[in-house]
């Protein structure tokens, strides 16, 4: 079964039960549901009232345009583009770091000039790797939501 990505995000949220209960209470306040609490163990049930009209709800739902699939594809393409950019940048910085190492091995007397630049390239590698991991994590999360 395929869920809307927004619905899937809500379902996997840690506070899903609280969200569901709050939505049911909103429907009680609108008069669409009636809250019934049993005397035994305090179980709560909700029943539809006469004013609960399925036709009105379907009309309201159909009036809202749904373009989430296009937005999801655009987001995925944007994330993929950024990921490829950061991977290319990481390779470039790794090459720069290796060049500084080679220069040091060839000319150890240049250590004072090479060391700060090598450290900067290494720091950039770490920063870019963090960005790559963040984007990959987000893409994995989105893939998991799409499977729901």
TrEMBL record:
The protein depicted here goes by the name Uncharacterized protein
């Amino acid at each position: 079964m395929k869920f809307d990505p927004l619905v899937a995000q809500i379902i996997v949220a840690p506070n899903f039960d609280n969200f569901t209960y709050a939505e049911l209470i909103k429907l009680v306040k609108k008069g669409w549901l009636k809250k019934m609490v049993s005397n035994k163990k305090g179980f709560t049930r909700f029943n539809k009232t006469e004013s609960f009209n399925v036709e009105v709800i379907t009309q309201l739902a159909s009036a809202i345009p749904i373009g989430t699939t296009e937005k999801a594809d655009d987001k995925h393409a944007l994330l993929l583009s950024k990921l490829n950019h950061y991977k290319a940048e990481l390779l470039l910085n790794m090459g720069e770091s290796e060049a500084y190492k080679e220069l040091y091995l060839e000319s150890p007397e240049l250590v004072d000039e090479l060391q700060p630049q090598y450290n900067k390239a290494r720091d950039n590698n770490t920063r870019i790797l963090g960005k790559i991991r963040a984007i990959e994590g987000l893409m994995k999360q989105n893939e998991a939501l799409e499977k729901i």
